[in-house]
Design goal:
It is an enzyme of class 2 (transferase). It comes from Vibrio variabilis. Keywords: Transferase. This is Riboflavin synthase eubacterial/eukaryotic. The longest helix is centred in the middle third of the chain and has 18 residues. The protein is 63% helix and 0% strand. By secondary structure, it is mainly alpha-helical. Helix 1 packs across helix 3. The protein is extended, with a radius of gyration of 16 Å.
């Protein structure tokens, strides 16, 4: 695990995605791909043109679910 107090600019850090988050992102990506099929590239281009990507949707979903769980 990386501890930041001992790090300086240019030092290597270890960044890992929490597995639960990755599962949600993968599930959202797969669901979108299955639902949109051949329209997926057009949808991804639309998202890119609007400053959003499929991974961001997954992360937003994870945060929303986590926030609801904490309430």
């Amino acid at each position: 695990m990386t501890t930041f107090e001992g790090k300086s600019v240019g030092d290597d850090v270890n960044i890992e995605i929490e597995r639960g988050t990755q599962v949600v992102v993968d599930t959202v990506r797969d669901t979108i791909a299955e639902t949109l099929g051949p329209l997926l590239p057009m949808f991804e281009k639309f998202l890119e043109q609007n400053g959003v990507d499929v991974d961001a949707i997954g992360h937003a979903t994870t945060k929303s679910l986590s926030d609801k769980k904490d309430q």
